[in-house]
Amino acid sequence: MLNAKRVDKIASAVLYGIAGFVVIVLAALLGFILYRGIPHLSWHFLTSPAKAFESGGGIGIQLFNSFYLLLITMIISFPIALGSGIYLNEYASKKSRVIGFVRTAIEILSSLPSVVVGLFGFLLFVVQFNFGFSLLSGAVALTFFNLPLLTRSVEESLRQIPNLQREAGSALGLSRWETVGHVILPAALPSIVTGVVLSAGRVFGEAAALIYTAGQSAPALDFTDWNPFNVSSPLNLMRPAETLAVHIWKINSEGIMPDAAAVSAGASAVLILAVLLFNVLARYLSKVLYQRLTSSK
């Protein structure tokens, strides 16, 4: 019969082995993508428009579309998620059946496949509301995709704040809203920022939902025209907007340009580097904000 110490050593070895295996697989996958893609990266590749039938195209418009779509999505989803998280954690009754139903709905929505969100966005925004394949359709669809996760992130960030701080605010004569605005939110800010940046990375790499909403084409843009009502303006919300992730999918499924493999590899490397940057930025911002708010080093 094994003694407790031996069982502990075996269990620890198994857990370390599983963790090491996951790290090796992840490192191998990232290394393979970066090894194939980084040699194809250049300033020309990152800024020039894509070419459908010729070699030498880039990902400039798709890269801009990805960041612009991300910005619009976060502008729409973050205020709603922030308000929802504050209400669910600070105001809603814990025993309310309605609130229980809302939490269940959030859990269900957060587990929906992105292709289902894309088909929903296609039927509602592209067809019913007549937005067409556009940045606006893609941004609103991604809001439905991102909102449940972002709401839960905000709620969990607020829940981590000890009730002692809420009681201290009440003892000072602050209203509940003043306590939330001046005490709770500043204390939860590092966690909220981390959740926002991580959800931004998730949105940036999304493809399935955008195939049916933002479209699979990237019309030529005039970066000297900043009138959002002009068709060729980069700021136009009603134009089709193929993103980087959709571009990668399209090249690998139906790309006919001579250098399709090189463009796909380079675009995949850029996408991976961008998502890694979002993760590193989330950790850095969380650390900086925590140090400033707590005056720690």
Question: Describe it for me?
Answer:
The protein has one domain (41-294): Orthogonal Bundle (MetI-like fold), CATH 1.10.3720. Helix 3 (60-91) runs parallel beside helix 6 (135-159). It is mainly α and 297 residues long. It has 11 helices and no strands. The longest helix has 35 residues, at 260-294. It is found in: Cell membrane.
The total count of strands amounts to 0
The CATH topology turns out to be: MetI-like fold
Count of alpha/pi helices: 11
Low-confidence stretches: none
Number of domains: 1
Fraction in beta strands? under 5%
What is the name of the CATH class?
A: Mainly Alpha
What is the CATH architecture descriptor? Answer: Orthogonal Bundle
Distance between the termini: 49 Å
User: Percent helix among the residues?
Assistant: over 70%
User: Main beta sheet: strand number and arrangement?
Assistant: none
CATH evolutionary superfamily: MetI-like
CA gyration radius, whole angstroms: 23 Å
Class derived from helix and strand content: mainly alpha
The H-and-E topology, N to C, reads as HHHHHHHHHHH
Shape: globular
- Mean pLDDT over the full residue set: 87
Membrane topology: Multi-pass membrane protein
Transmembrane segments: 12-35, 67-88, 100-125, 131-150, 260-282
Protein name: Phosphate transport system permease protein PstA
Family: Belongs to the binding-protein-dependent transport system permease family. CysTW subfamily.
